[in-house]
Amino acid sequence: MQLIPTSLNDVVILEPKIFGDERGFFLEAYNEATFKSLGLPTRFMQDNHSGSRKGVLRGLHYQLMHPQGKLVRALRGEIFDVAVDLRRDSAQFGEWFGLVLSAENKRSLWVPPGFGHGFLVLSEFAEVSYKATKLYAPTFERSIVWNDPAIGIAWPLDGEPTLSEKDKAGLLLADAETYPYSNRL
Fold first, then answer.
1. In angstroms, rounded to a whole number, what is the distance separating the alpha carbons of residues 84 and 95?
2. Which class in CATH covers the domain with range 44-184?
3. CA–CA dist 17, 3 (Å, integer)
4. Which of 61, 62, 117, 179 is catalytic?
5. Residue 161 · residue 56 · CB < 8 Å
6. What does pTM read for this prediction?
7. Residue 130 annotated among the catalytic residues of the structure
8. Vertex 76 angle, CA 79 and 160, to 5°
9. Is there a contact between 155 and 161 (Cβ–Cβ < 8 Å)?
10. Which of these, 25, 39, 125, 142, is most buried using a 10 Å CB contact count?
11. Per-residue pLDDT tens digits for 11-49
12. How many CA atoms lie within 13 A of 69 on its CB side?
């Protein structure tokens, strides 16, 4: 597995070795020893799987008190996946990184604790899987509005996205509770 740095400290792209032949392909999406050697978490507490149609935007989500690290990949279709640094003591606070994850490129994105996460479905339908380092804790879940001009994410959109009621009610970064100290996550 190859680890590819991004413009955000601690957010990395994981590119697996793919073994293919006339039958199809095989890859390791997670291997404890490999992750440990790359300095990534080796303990995940929850696996999540979602399916969404084109134009659905989920996010920007994060949890206070129980911040989740997320290992995200598209199993079917194509998404534009985004991480936003929400650690107030970070020199990159409010900055974002985005990339296309797809069933075709088989890449994963590691979104560490202290970051907001969201994605936009680009294909007609997409299935997304992500491993989380902490359990879902709805009491501590927060959402920042997807189009906050202070963050300025360049979503590859044609028109308006389809949002949940929760995501429609997302706050601006300036009004949101964020993580005060990255070394305490």
1. 6
2. mainly beta
3. 11
4. 61
5. yes
6. 0.95
7. yes
8. 35
9. yes
10. 142
11. 999 999 999 999 999 999 999 999 999 999 999 999 999
12. 17
